[in-house]
Specification:
- By secondary structure, the chain is of the alpha/beta class.
- Helices cover 26% and strands 27% of the residues.
- The protein has a 6-stranded mixed beta sheet with strand order 2-1-3-4-8-7.
- α3 (87-93) packs antiparallel against α4 (111-120).
- The longest helix is centred in the middle third of the chain and has 14 residues, at 60-73.
- It starts with a strand and ends with a strand.
- 31% of the residues are buried.
């Protein structure tokens, strides 16, 4: 079984959606910090977890608990694929020589606007979860994954989406 944790309105094909937001497309409306309590039958049974731009919506203490919960439900050797905004990329967008230029992948915004929205959350009307509470770079995320007990932690560089920090790890 594969889980898309924090799926929002779109569940990854081949995965089951899990999201705390009852307005999401999730099959299970469960907080990631309560996976083992609400789904004890999942412990050690999940093959893969995909979590795209969810972790930054949690405070650091809740993110630590979330990663521990993901590790607990994955089979030994199970795969975690986690994405967060890359604070290093967004920091470069804020440099004086870059800040007022159009954002490379979304010219609707300047680099400054894109960076600030990506770091603080887009805070769109009616989307109560669209606020970012934590920021990540590769070392901070790597260390959080290692402390949660993950192994074979590696970064995937995303040339087509450089504002995203994507890491994979095994339980």
């Amino acid at each position: 079984m594969n889980l898309d944790i924090g799926c929002g309105k779109n569940v990854r094909p081949g995965y089951i959606g899990v999201d705390a937001d009852h307005d999401s497309a999730a099959t299970y409306h469960t907080a990631v910090t309560h996976l083992t309590r609400e789904h004890p039958d999942w412990v050690g049974k999940i093959d893969k977890i995909y979590s795209r731009h969810m972790l930054e919506h949690l405070s650091y203490p809740r993110a630590k608990r979330a990663l521990a919960q993901m590790k607990a439900v994955l089979k030994p050797g199970g795969e975690l694929d986690v994405w967060v905004p890359d604070i290093v990329y967004h920091g470069r967008q804020l440099q004086p020589d870059m800040a007022d230029l159009p954002a490379a992948f979304n010219s609707k915004y300047t680099n400054r606007e894109h960076a600030i929205r990506s770091l603080a959350g887009w805070q769109r009307q009616g989307q109560r979860f669209d606020i970012h509470k934590s920021q990540w770079d590769d070392r901070l995320l790597h260390n959080a994954l290692a402390r949660a007990g993950f192994e074979n932690i590696r970064r995937d560089h995303m040339d087509n989406e450089p504002w995203s920090l994507r890491m994979r790890a095994q339980a």
